[in-house]
Amino acid sequence: MQIILAPARKDLGFKVGLLPFWPMLHAIKKAVRHIALRDADLPQQCTIGLSDPQTEVRVWLHGFGDPIDVTHNHVVACAAAPFTVGIGLDRNWNLETSARDLSLTFRESDGKGRLLADVGLRSSETLSSDNQSLSLFHIRSCRNYCLPRARVWAYDRYQSFVRHRDDKNPEIPLSVLEARSMTAFFICPRPVVLVSVKHGDAGNIFPMNLLGSIGDGYFAFALNSLRKAAPLVERAGRAVLSTIPFNYAELVRQLGKNHRKESVNCEDLPFETTTSKVLGFPIPEFALRVREVEIKVVRKLGSHTLFFGRLLQDECRRESLQFYMVHGIYEAWRRKAYASPTQLLPEHSSKAANFVQPGAIERR
C-alpha cells in the first residue's frame, strides 16, 4: 500500500505560528480602528425609539426656487445598481430644466439647523398612479458633514475593507458612492415596519425599512429583488405595513429570515396576531399604526423592486416610541450634539452590522 502525504499548506503553518500572538494582534487591530474612526467607531446599524413622525432631521429638496420640505415625501427606491431615490413632485414642475441643480440636504430640525449631508440628484424617470406622480433620481454626488472630512474618508475606506473581507461575492455589490449615499439617507431616522402579504395559500410577514409616504394618500416601498418576498408582494398586489413599538425591535429583527421564504405559518410567529380592517391580512397585535396599501405600480430598479400604491386604510391604533434605525455616523454626531446615547441592541454593540448594505435586515 502506497501512502501519499499531501504537502502542508504554507498559509496554514503561518497562521498556526501566529496563534500565540492573536490576542496582541487583535488588540492592535482594535486600536488602529479606533484611531481611524474615533467617535464613529459604532455599529452601522443603530436602533432608536422616536415618536411618529420623527422630528430630529429634515430633508430639503433644492432646485425649484425656495427649498421644499420632503422629509415625509420621499423613499429610498433602490439601494444599488444604481442607488435611486423617489420623491413625490408636482407634475407641473419641469425636471429637465432643473436637472443640473437638483439636490437634497439633510439638516438638524432644531437648534442651529446644522447641515448633516447633501446629495446631488440626476433625474431618471417618473412613475404615475391616478393623480399622484413619483419622480425617480439617481445620485451624482454625496457629502457627509457629521464628521470631519478626514474621518469620513477613513470611515469609507474602513467599511470598504470590511465589505471585501466579510463578503467576497456580495449578493448586491455597492460602489463607494452608493455606500456613502445609503449612509447619508440613514442620517434621517428610518422606521422599521412589518409587512403582511397574502396571495392564495401563501402568506408572509417580514420586516422592512425602505419605505415612505408619497404625496397625499400614496405610499412607496422597496424590496430586495432576489428575495422570495418581493415576487409574492407583486403577485398579491396588496400589502399591510405595521409600525413597531421600540421595545419589540429585537423580536421583529428575528423575522428578517422570512424574506427568503415563500410563505410562513402565522402560528409559528413569536407574537399574537389580529387582522387588518380592510384586507383582513394578519398583523401583529402590538402594531402602533397600520397602513393597508393597494399596489398600483411595480418597477424593477437594479437591486430592488419598487412598489408604489394607494392607501386603502391608515389606522393609528396606539401611541408609543416607535422602532427607527439610523446610521452609526449620525449616531456619533447625535451623541455629541444632544448628549443622549442611543440604546443599541446587544448583538450590535461591538461589531458593525453592515446595515447600510442592502438586505442586511433580511439576512438574519
Topology:
Layout: H1 10-18, H2 22-37, E1 45-50, E2 57-62, E3 68-69, E4 74-78, E5 84-87, H3 95-98, E6 103-108, E7 115-129, E8 132-144, H4 149-166, H5 176-185, E9 190-191, E10 193-199, E11 202-208, E12 211-213, E13 218-224, H6 229-236, E14 238-243, H7 249-253, E15 273-275, E16 282-284, E17 289-301, E18 304-316, E19 322-327, H8 328-338
Antiparallel strand pairs: 1-19, 2-3, 2-6, 4-5, 5-8, 6-7, 7-8, 9-19, 10-11, 10-14, 12-13, 13-18, 14-17, 15-16, 17-18
What does this 3D model show about the protein?
It is a single chain. With about 375 residues, the chain is α+β, with helices and mostly antiparallel strands. The chain has helices at about 10-20, 20-35, 95-100, 150-165, 175-185, 230-235, 250-255, 330-340, and strands at about 45-50, 55-60, 70, 75-80, 85, 105-110, 115-130, 130-145, 190, 195-200, 200-210, 210-215, 220-225, 240-245, 275, 280-285, 290-300, 305-315, 320-325. A seven-stranded antiparallel beta sheet has the order 3-2-6-7-8-5-4.
Q: Count all strands and give the number.
A: 19
- Mean pLDDT across every amino acid position: 84
Uncertain ranges: 1-15, 343-360
Global outline: globular
Helix content: 10-25%
H/E series, N to C? HHEEEEEHEEEHHEEEEEHEHEEEEEH
As laid out across the biggest beta sheet, the strand order is: 3-2-6-7-8-5-4
First-residue to last-residue Cα separation: 49 Å
